Amino acid sequence: MLQRPPRRPRLVIFDLDGVVYRGLEPVPGAAELINDLHRRRVRVRYATNNSMATREAYVERLASMGVRAAVPEIVTSTSATVGYLRHHLPQVHHVLGVGSSAMIAELRAAGLEVTPVAELARPDYQGETLKSAVDAVVVGLDQAYDYIRIAVAATAVRRGAAFVATNADLRYPTARGFLPGAGSLVAAIRAASGGVEPIIVGKPQPTMFAEILEDARVKPEAAVVVGDNPDADIVAGHRSGIFTVLILTGVADAALADGLAGERKPDLVVADHAELGRQFDQWLS
Questions:
Q1: CB distance 33 to 276 below 8 Å
Q2: CA separation for the pair 41, 35 (Å, rounded)
Q3: Euclidean distance between the first and final Cα of the chain, in Å?
Q4: Which of 182, 188, 225, 284 would you label with 140, given CA atoms 20 to 30 Å apart?
Q5: 132/114 Cα distance (integer angstroms)
Q6: Catalytic: 228?
Q7: Which one-letter DSSP state was computed for residue 169?
Q8: CATH of span 91-200
Q9: Which pTM value belongs to this model?
């Protein structure tokens, strides 16, 4: 197992929930480490599969925890989707948005014409077409989704719209346990569309990290991913060619880490941010 990145780190990509904070509480030592990386002129990005909040909201949340962040440093599955569309599907202009108001707002802020699925989800829907052609259906977590919204989205996909998922998490953690994630809705639309496979942007697919690397102009071997979820953060890091660190401050504990194998096995395991800080002291000296 590698104990240090192939090259001196120039970029560190942090997951958020479970790494920088847990729910509403900051993870001890996270702010100090991140601010120290800034002081050392190491670039920092924050990567989250969440599509329920804007990047501006994340900046405010992090600031309240003593973490310095700027909007361009926040990469949500929505902002990564915008980057993917810009770089790989530049012909997409009109989007059917299946997701939160924050996702809709961010897509519109990027200059896309967005029709929220809620505007078409009438009880008498019978597969009518939109007033103008839809280039893509973009799906995030929509806590109000129902049969009609699935029907509208699946109809657009069947008629040729690109099918893009901000992420495919089947569930997401809350203080009271797990709830259905965006992937549950994506799976329903896929089934109703006749099996059209979505383009998945969020982790564990490498698309989000590829967008981050391209934007930061950093090669994979000069980057480090710090995450708490082997199935998302670590797999995405390996698929992107980035050195991976599993930190045991979130969903993974030492027993789970010891049993990891294949793509889920990190290059390095640390207990907390204090231990991670000592590693960076070595890597950056």
A1: yes
A2: 10
A3: 21
A4: 225
A5: 11
A6: no
A7: -
A8: 3.40.50.1000
A9: 0.87
DSSP 5-54: -SS--SEEEE-SBTTTEETTEEPTTHHHHHHHHHHTT-EEEEEE---SS-
pLDDT tens over the chain, length 285 residues: 457 898 999 999 999 989 999 888 899 999 999 999 999 999 999 999 989 999 999 999 999 999 989 999 999 999 999 999 999 999 999 999 999 999 999 999 999 999 999 988 777 767 666 666 899 999 999 998 899 999 999 999 999 999 999 998 888 766 677 788 899 999 999 999 999 999 999 999 999 999 899 999 999 999 999 999 999 999 999 999 999 999 999 888 999 999 999 999 999 999 999 999 999 999 998
Closest among 261, 284, 236 to 14, alpha carbons compared: 236
- Which of 15, 135, 142, 233 is flagged as catalytic? 15
Query: What is the Cβ-side half-sphere exposure of residue 89, based on CA atoms within 13 angstroms?
Result: 21
In angstroms, rounded to a whole number, what is the distance separating the alpha carbons of residues 262 and 271?
A: 21
The answer to whether 66 and 29 have CB atoms below 8 angstroms apart is no
For this structure, is 15 an active site residue? Answer: yes
| H/E element, 115 | strand 113-116
Beta strands in 166-238 (DSSP E): 171-174, 177-180, 199-200, 223-227
Return the residue matching tokens 């391209």.
Answer: 214
11-49+204-283 adopts what CATH topology?
Rossmann fold (3.40.50)
- In the chain, count of helices (H) and strands (E)? 10, 15
Q: Where are the domains of the chain?
A: 11-49+204-283, 91-200
Q: Is there a common fold for 11-49+204-283 and 91-200?
A: yes
